Amino acid sequence: MTALNGDAAKVAIYWDFENLHAVLTDQEFGPDYYREHRMSVQAPVADVVPVVDYAASLGDVIINRAYGNWQFFSRYRDALNGAGIDLIQMFPRGANMKNSADIRMALDALDDLHRHPHLTHIVVVSSDSDFISLAQKVKQAGKFIAGVGVERNANRFWIASCNEFRFYSSLVRLNAESESAAMAGASGLADDASGAGPAPLRSPVTDVPSMAPAAEDAFSRSLSVEEARDTLVKSLTQLVARQGENHVHRGALKSLMKRLMPAFDERALDCGSFTLFLERFPDLVRVIDTEGGGHVAMVSPGENAERPDYSTPSRS
Fold first, then answer.
1. SS3 165
2. Which residues contact 112 (CB under 8 A, 6 or more apart)?
3. How do residues 23-58 score in pLDDT, each as one tens digit?
4. Closest C-alpha to 46, from 13, 79, 72, 68
5. Distance (Å, rounded) from C-alpha 272 to C-alpha 49?
6. Is residue 297 helix, strand or coil?
7. Domain range spanning residue 125?
8. Same domain, 108 and 239
């Protein structure tokens, strides 16, 4: 979905993180396990990447905030930082140790809608019915609200109040399917790199400021074919699942790839155009037509596809 003015949709994500973690913890370790152990450092059970990928499929993620008592969620640090999530500390108050994250989230979401009128989509990650009123206000403002909750725990009235609702397990499954599809072709890349063909291409980066060796390696290495391939699979999987049909506009595909991997640039992979980039992966994608910018389809595992050619294409 795009904004009414034709620009890319703008998305804000609000995580009721303790709610997500608590529900998943109880599912894994048994009822009331989280309540009995909530004042200790928590073992990670939630994967944030599938949720962020889903939000990115809606549009550009410009706000990404999670609310919780972070002194007990330190083991999520790398995952949360890696996903670019802004952490809002909510110290518990009162005898029942409630952190009131739901109230703060709702107020922040409404404030953001007022202060940032270009926001078009709100994603609330929670299974709690506390956000029904927020959903109603978001709709009244002419915006799109999506919910993400845990199956068998998400309140049915909360689900019904959203324009779209996704179960956490389905997003994790979708992410796993895209990773499996990417790994299915990884052996072809390995064969090429070991002698059956040219090694995956890496374009040198110049004019990188001087920094410590570890940081230099993290920031100066260029995009690889493997990374671009994985992002292509993930983007195709998300768009096909969202649209309900295997018919993806090439422009939408490239836009999502850029959202999931901002460093993506087909020219860095010796491809003069996005079309040439797609042609390098006949095992993943096939052209359907060239009308209105062109459409492509995901190649299913059962289809007969050419062996991918990872050699350097000619620039055009």
1. strand
2. 12, 63, 119
3. 999 999 999 999 999 999 999 999 999 999 999 999
4. 79
5. 31
6. strand
7. 10-172
8. no
